[in-house]
Amino acid sequence: MKKYLVIALLVIVGLAIAYITFVIAAIKMVIGAILLGVAAIALLAVWIMWKIED
């Protein structure tokens, strides 16, 4: 019985680590998408300003 308890504990710990890793990756993807959007808007603003100067 102790062997099954250890295996179950290891499986639960593995699933918890996988879930935490997934959540951290999802948060990083959201932050990256937001920063990419900000960079795109800034680039668009620079392009518009450059076009207005002509």
The tally of strands reads: 0
Report the C-alpha radius of gyration, rounded: 23 Å
Percent range for β-strand residues: under 5%
Percent helix, as a range, is over 70%
Mean model confidence by pLDDT: 94
Count of runs of 4 or more consecutive helical residues: 1
Structural class: mainly alpha
What sequence of helices (H) and strands (E) makes up the elements?
H
Describe the main β-sheet briefly: none
**Intertermini distance:** 80 Å
Principal-axis shape equals rod-shaped
Low-confidence stretches: none
Describe this structure in words.
The chain has 54 residues and is mostly helical. It has one helix spanning 2-53. 96% of the residues lie in helices and 0% in strands. The chain is rod-shaped, with a radius of gyration of 23 Å.
Topology, element by element:
Layout: H1 2-53
Task: Give a brief outline of the structure.
This protein is mainly alpha-helical and 54 residues long. It has one helix at 2-53.
Can you tag this structure with a few keywords?
1 helix; mainly alpha; 54 residues
